[in-house]
Amino acid sequence: MNDIISEFVDYLLNTKNYSTHTASAYESDIYDFTKFFARFNDGRVELTDVARADTFTFRAWLADRAKRELTHKSTARALSSLRTFYKWLSRYKNIQNDAIGLISSPKVPRKLSKAIETTDIADMHDAIRALDSNEPWIAARDWALVVLIFGCGLRISEALGLKNMDIANAPDSLRIIGKGNKERIVPVLPAVNTAIEKYINVKPFCKMNEDPLFCSVRGLPMSARMAEKVVENLRHYLQLPDYVTPHALRHTFATALLSGGADLRSLQELLGHSSLSTTQLYTKVNMAEIMDAYKHAHPLAQSDD
What we know:
Layout: H1 2-14, H2 20-38, H3 47-51, H4 55-67, H5 72-92, H6 118-131, H7 136-152, H8 156-160, E1 173-177, E2 183-187, H9 190-202, H10 224-238, H11 246-259, H12 264-271, H13 276-279, H14 281-297
Antiparallel strand pairs: 1-2
Helix pairs in contact: 1-2, 2-5, 6-7, 6-10, 7-9, 7-11, 11-14
């Protein structure tokens, strides 16, 4: 069974062009199911066993995940991984299993992120200089990262995936490879180029064109956790709310554009969302602001009649 799962993961990586992180998540979810199945199958699970799994088996697995207090979001993703695996088995291994299609996913409430106050983002500049006063190049790096994510609406992985050559000569736009290996073009504001140029001029490592734009104190590529730690330190220093994260910087970018009149299709392109429904979540944020303004400004909103 391990060989079959490895073959499936290879398919995700090389045929579907999924990222290593995404393929690893699929692999983990499928192994979670097979390990559960093995407990009721003399400790082993073969391909024939997976083929005959019924609705009772799948529901028992979901119940087991609930017992382990795994979140609905995690379980919904795991079930989606398993469905994809069975589709692959049907297409490439001639194994049919209709039972998986009868299982409903757990309901996952779609939470709206909160936008960061623009004044708080401005305060981050001085905060970074204070926190990294002994290492000016690190201060320049951290500010360049914050401005890039906020100014271009990038995911952490997209920002950290940039190389020096991508940002050379202060380009007007960036070619970004996002989720699912999808390419998009995002405009670059002068303030972003200025911050990055200052960082490039002082960084002691990773100076070649092919080197990563953002690097660690040891000259290695900067990790996502390091980027998260940068914003986490700023949050503590400025005593900002817990929702202030790198993703919140991207969210603030989207909210600002929508409030400024950007249409959903354009915003979808800029964010690299595969589905417009994901982008439409921002309309709910904007409507909340509109309703709040209405309640405070409309004469009848304050009336008791």
